[in-house]
Design goal:
alpha/beta; Rossmann fold; 16 strands; 18% strand
């Protein structure tokens, strides 16, 4: 990975959705260079029908895995225009640099810079700055919230003057393989200018709460109605239907956080169990994965397809390794598995132990022996009505809608606080 990249290797480059027309801004090199270093954008007090807009700066591709950013921003899109600004895709010098913009929701747009290969770190930042400025101008963005998933994006957006700045810290990115060396320094700068910090889990909240006066924990939420489909009779996809036996499943990114050795040991011990892995392989060599006959890599599936797969599993798995990259994770799939009515077995990830393990909703196993026994128990008790009732009671107040409403409330309160402060200074 390039050291100057703002993208810490968390997913492959994405492209337009099949059948989705891309609306693009095309600017020549000369015209953009003359625009460089333009004046900063000031906050306008002119109201519009849907305000403020939201500019999201993300290290993840919109089309990668449907997770926290997509859940939250599709809800933000109900009342605001949202521009999801991805990291660049590098193209040959024969192609004109541009910002490719495509509409993926009613007022939700994915903006992807397409820049020349081989740019210096300084030119890379300048190009992104200019393309963001031009997007703001072309789309008449006036009052807006700056929403960050990666502090590295501050390098080309620190000149903007948003009405509100939010850092939704969903992971400890500095602990991920290939993370830029300057990430922690940029995060420190982001703390200095952000108004609110949201964290993707309790452990991450505890690690970050001393760094900013307004840090709030928002652990993984769920779309219960979506995953609840797995509890009903539902068709099984062909690539899974042809696999016979006890089905143990996992969906998500397969990377350095995944315990390959645990999977290999379990598959060797229990050849009658079928291990189904749904998701892309990222940052690790595919050939390093165990290739037992009872391990099936089914590839990346769409969010809409997941209930059809999960509904035919006997047990869902969270086989995460215990290392720096998993120290602060709060797997979104934990409540999703439970909403689907599947028993869950997990390694002792802190944000799974608390609260799911402590509440008796998820079995926690630290060793291969323990994991094997826990799976046996889960298979035997998978239709336990008492357990399922406890799951539903626990999840009754957990939803992405509620999470977004609570975030919105904090954002509105912060805007009121800032307005009062400005009024007091004016007086």
């Amino acid at each position: 990975m390039r050291e100057d990249s703002i993208y810490p290797g968390l997913g492959p480059p994405g492209g337009p959705l099949e059948g989705s027309p891309a609306i693009t801004f095309n600017f020549t090199t000369d015209s953009l260079l003359t625009e460089r270093r333009r004046a900063s954008h000031s906050v306008s007090s002119v109201p519009t029908e849907l305000t403020p807009d939201l500019l999201c700066f993300s290290h993840l591709r919109w089309d990668f895995v449907f997770q926290r950013p997509q859940h939250l921003l599709t809800r933000a899109n109900r009342h605001s225009r949202v521009f999801f600004i991805e990291e660049p895709i590098f193209v040959p010098k024969s192609e004109i640099p541009r910002m490719e913009i495509r509409r993926v929701g009613e007022r939700l747009y994915v903006a992807t810079p397409r820049l020349h290969e081989g740019l210096s770190p300084e030119d890379l930042v300048d190009w992104q700055r200019d393309l963001v400025d031009l997007l703001i101008d072309e789309r008449c963005v006036q009052r807006f919230t700056a929403w960050y998933y990666t502090p590295m994006a501050l390098a080309f957006s620190d000149h903007l003057q948003p009405q509100l700045t939010v850092y939704d810290c969903m992971d400890e990115l500095s602990a991920f393989r290939g993370a830029p060396t300057m990430l922690l320094d940029w995060e420190r700068r982001l703390y200095e200018r952000t108004d609110l910090v949201f964290t993707g889990g309790q452990s991450l909240f505890e690690a970050k709460q001393g760094r900013h006066p307004r840090v709030y924990a928002f652990p993984s939420s769920i779309d219960k109605s979506h995953f609840g489909k797995a509890r009903q009779p539902i068709s099984e996809p062909e690539d899974q239907q042809c696999i016979e036996g006890i089905k143990l499943g996992f969906f998500g990114v397969i990377d350095e956080r995944f315990d390959i050795d645990l999977l290999a040991s379990l598959a060797t011990r229990r050849p009658e169990w079928q291990f189904l892995l749904l998701g892309p392989v990222v940052k690790i060599a595919p050939e390093s994965l165990p290739q037992n006959a009872n391990i099936h890599y089914l590839g990346m599936k769409s969010y809409d397809e997941l209930p059809n797969y999960i509904g035919h599993w006997h047990t869902a798995l969270l086989p995460f390794a215990l290392n720096e990259s998993t120290r602060f994770i709060s797997p979104t799939k934990t409540p999703e598995y439970l909403a689907a009515g599947r028993p869950v077995v997990s390694t002792p990830i802190r944000d799974v132990v608390r609260p799911y393990g402590e509440e008796g909703l998820v079995q926690i196993a630290a060793t291969v022996d323990d994991f094997e026994r826990a799976i046996e128990k889960a298979i035997a008790n998978r239709l336990c009505a008492t357990w399922l009732a406890d799951v539903d009671n626990f999840l009754s107040t957990n939803s992405w809608d509620l999470t977004w409403e609570r975030m919105q409330r904090l954002m509105a309160e912060q805007l009121v606080r800032q307005a009062r402060m400005a009024a007091s200074i004016g007086n």
